[in-house]
Amino acid sequence: MGESDLRLAIEKFAKDLAGKAESFVEDISTLEVRTFTTPSAEITTLAGGELDLSDPTLARQLQLRAYTKIDFDCDTTICLPVDANDQVDRSVWDMHQTMVMQALKTRETMLKSMGSALTSALDALQRVAG
Amino acid sequence: MAASRFILTGLGLSPLEGEDPLGIWELSASRTTAFAATAEDVATAEDVATAEDVATVEDAATTALPPGATEQGLIWRIELPASRREARSELETRLTAAKVRQAYLETAEKRLSDLHVGSAYSAQTDSAESALLAEVMALRGSAVAYDAGDTGAVSFLHLYEQCEALVARFRRLVQYYARVETSVGGQPVALTIIDWSGDYEVTWQDGVGPADMALHLDAIRLVLASRQAWLRLVSVVASGALSLSIKASVPGGQFLLFPAVYRFVRDVLAGLEQVQASQEAPG
Taking CA atoms, which of A50, B54, B85, B212 is between 20 and 30 Å from B14? Predict the structure, then answer.
């Protein structure tokens, strides 16, 4: 056992990583950030997953307050949160903007990680071939 | 004051394997969470995981899963004390620790690449290097044919199992990105789901204040830094085992050497930790 089990585990890991890298490249064309709020009584039973608002139970619990979509060519779609007087709700908007900035940083880190993983893989291949 | 907890649930570990090699998170097979999962979570997890994965996870987490329970994704749960100042300080400490571990991994990688297999390993002064080279030499000389029941064989098999568990754990890190839940003083504050394309879905409790928002943001940063450090650990071990196997001309060495290199990296991390602790100790 030992070695062959470990070899299998590493192969699976590499396969998963390659699959994720592929889907990452496909999905990277847009960045979306959604900000929801929920009453405090509801948050403890909040559903996770995709937070699909077409689910009526979820839709009752969650309010989509702000949305940003940034395309790869930097075209940006923003839905602003407004209060009862149609004024921009600053507290929600600030929260949302902070998260958009964080998401952009995350995306940058992901790109660097993927680049570094690919460089390491190529380097390793060259060493094996050489 | 209630103590902080930093718990990662869903890696499918048995309690014996529940150790974070970087010493930042408490790994738990328990599925209890402040934010209850729904059927949708379960369906999503099932979509991603293969039947084989589920079987593996079920095997590993039998002790924690209730009968009929189904697998779900990774949940990074951060429970912070009611004192915002203490909560912020706890998060900063962990975040610094994650960054320090990443720096240690760079050191470990450098020491691995500086290793000279040709030289007599007695000349390598550091014990981590000596131990690793001894294993390389043993493998090169095919001297690993331990007798059944031999202490060395048992220890080596145990290390293989640890490595296999580690790789299985990291497969789940790859399968799921991050779901971060933050609570302060026992009250849930926010949850954020980050997917593999970098999209964010953030849900805040109504009326959350700026201080709690900042805490959740720091919690997200900690999770991302931890993920990064863990993936770096795998990459250091995998590339180290590969390059050492080439240097030492050990056929199939990238797999055979994986446990030895993993042990080396852990030894280096522990050594650096010790140095730092002694530097910080008063007097």
Answer: A50
Which H/E stretch holds residue A118? helix A90-129
- Cα B274 to Cα B20, B107, B255, B262, B282, distances in angstroms: 17, 15, 29, 18, 14
Q: How many CA atoms lie within 13 A of B206 on its CB side?
A: 9
* Digit-coded pLDDT (tens) for B116-138: 876 555 555 568 888 888 888 87
Confidence of residue B37 (pLDDT cuts 50, 70, 90): very low
Per-residue confidence (pLDDT) for residue B67, from 0 to 100:
42
B91-A91-B5 Cα angle (round to 5) = 20
pLDDT, tens only, A75-129: 888 888 888 888 888 888 988 999 999 999 988 888 887 777 666 666 655 555 5
Nearest to B91 by CA among B211, B244, B238, B250: B211
| Number of separate helices (H) and strands (E) present in chain B | 8, 6
Global pTM reads 0.78
Find the radius of gyration of the CA atoms of chain B. Answer: 21
Cβ separation B156–A27 shorter than 8 A? no
Residues of B in Cβ contact (< 8 Å) with A64: none
Residue B231 carries which side chain, given as an amino acid letter?
A: L
Name residues 37-66 of chain B within 8 A of A (Cβ).
37-38, 40-41, 43-44
Strand partners, A36: A64, B203
Interface contact A127-B174, CB threshold 8 A: no
* Of residues B262, B233, B249, the one with CA closest to residue B131: B262
User: Residue B243 belongs to what H/E stretch?
Assistant: helix B210-248
Nearest to B106 by CA among B21, B211, B232, B227: B232
CB B202 within 8 A of CB A33: yes
Q: Cβ(B3)–Cβ(B83) under 8 Å?
A: no
Q: Specify burial of residue A98 (Cβ count, 10 A radius: 0-12, 13-18, 19+).
A: middle
- Residue A36 · residue B201 · CB < 8 Å: yes
What is the distance between the alpha carbons of residues A67 and A81, in angstroms, rounded to a whole number? Answer: 9
Contact B200 A103 (CB under 8 A): yes
